[in-house]
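Protocol step 4 of 6: structure prediction from sequence.
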Amino acid sequence: MAKKRKTLPADFRDLLETGDLAALQAVFDKCELDARGGYSKTTALGFADCPDDLARWLVGQGLDVDTSSLRDQRTPLHERASGWRSIAVLIELGADVNVRDSQGSTPMHAAAMVPHNLEALISGGAEVDPVARRSTPLRSALISCENAQIAMVAESAAVLIAAGAAIPDDASELVTQIGTRLEFARSKFNPDFIEETDAGLRRLYELFDVEPVPRRLTHDGTSRIEVDATDTKGQYAELWALLVPVSGPATIVQGEVLRLAGKLSREIDGNGSINWNNDFRSMTDALGVHLASGKPVDNLDELAPMLGRIRTGNAPQADLACVRESAVAWVLGNPDPTPLPTPSYAH
């Protein structure tokens, strides 16, 4: 008898989409029941499109419903809890609702932004507040929430709180950050979804008793630039909200100086310079030119070696902080808007 394969066929996803149970069962004439496939190297049970009847058949044939993936030791319940398809069949078949992967995460963490799967897991006996990497499912949802996910996260938060989830200590801060990101991007947000997104944001404010973030006021491009904040950090935040566009270069040099200082900092300190290329070097050069223009900043000599290190994509946080502070000083020293020439960089 020929030895069975340990990997699923390359076209297994296509077979799943057909929903042909007989054809899917026939795969296991040549493959082991626990044959793996996909990015995470999971069993057939871990594929989102796995039909319920196939899942029942596989378990009936002897496949352990909790057989974990070769990558990150995630069970099929982990794999599917983050998707929109129902996970009810896995729970019906006895999947462990509190199992942890190699990172310590449970299916509840995977389902943190999928309300109906959270409800299914809770009904199946899942712990509401398991902690993985210092976060419960509720905190994970708030941390990971992007603008397009606000409505879902609000619903998930309501489900978790109703089930007795503890409110994270930093919930107010996290919800404020969610609101701030939406207000910053509101002008470019898809108008087809803004109503439900706003409703979700209001719900988050109510659930966590957070003061709503005010609507963003942007500069008109011609008026003298003024700020209310008196400290550099506050001035940077105020100027950023006022002058920096949602995407692409600013229309005035003052906004571009802030944007470049922030973008270079994020790429080096936040991304480890993984995207560093000639564009970023051109941005660094442009920032140096801007800081020396108009009324130059007082610390140009000090900035020169810092910008040199930044240009390599390898600069300490102290350099990045000094450049951001210098950007603020330059804008405040040059408050009359200066149109930005077409930049030499694309980002």
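Step 5 (inspection) to follow. Strands lie at 5-7, 31-36.
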